[in-house]
Amino acid sequence: MILAANFKSNLNRAKAHTYIEALEAFCTQNAIEDRVIVFPPASALRESSLHVKVGAQNAFAARSGAFTGELAQDQLDEFAIRTVLIGHSERRHVIGETQELIAEKFAYYQKQGFEIVYCIGEPLEVREEGNEALLEYLEAQYEGVDLHYSGLVIAYEPVWAIGTGLTPTLQEIELIHASIKERTSRPLLYGGSVKAENAREILALEHVEGVLVGSGALDVRDFCSMIADAKSLHVQKEKHRS
Ligand code: PGA
């Protein structure tokens, strides 16, 4: 499974580094084999450690240049960052990134061979229109995106569930994930108000191959508890098989 924490604009450099060190220690002590990714704010980027991959929350589609306020590939290369989040709902809806710009970033970082965690998700008014409208909305977010790229990880995050404490029902998550899986075989994460309290039941769902967590992961102990849940679910599944 893949467990990813998105700090957004939370935690400063010192706190993010303390967090990552505690996380690395936890993963080492518990022999964690699942993939753990952290997206700290740009000021706290650093090299990945043995268990904890560090990714960028955003990056401009260029090696370097006159793009005030943006990080480009050169700044990621300094820390050997090879993972980037693209299409997050806050970039789409708060910052105003268009699908065209998102597709440009995707194409650029695909060409550079980066791992891309690509976020999709519908606003509430679309969800209320029903499943057909929802899938149509997601379809538009695939525009210009190579769904078969080997470095792709998809994160389905309903916009109305992000940072609100609301989540779709487990059946709804399963249903949407099954439909997304018909379009791509790449790993599929769920995101949107995942917390230490509900991670286990979400991770146990079919077609959920990990989680992307924002506020629920800001305390490293909570994120570690989700990682422990993922590990114990593997053990359970192994037992079922044997
Ligand atoms: P949340 O954010 O866990 O705070 O809802 C998830 C995300 O934006 O990736």
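Strands lie at 2-6, 35-39, 52-54, 83-86, 115-120, 152-156, 188-191, 210-213.
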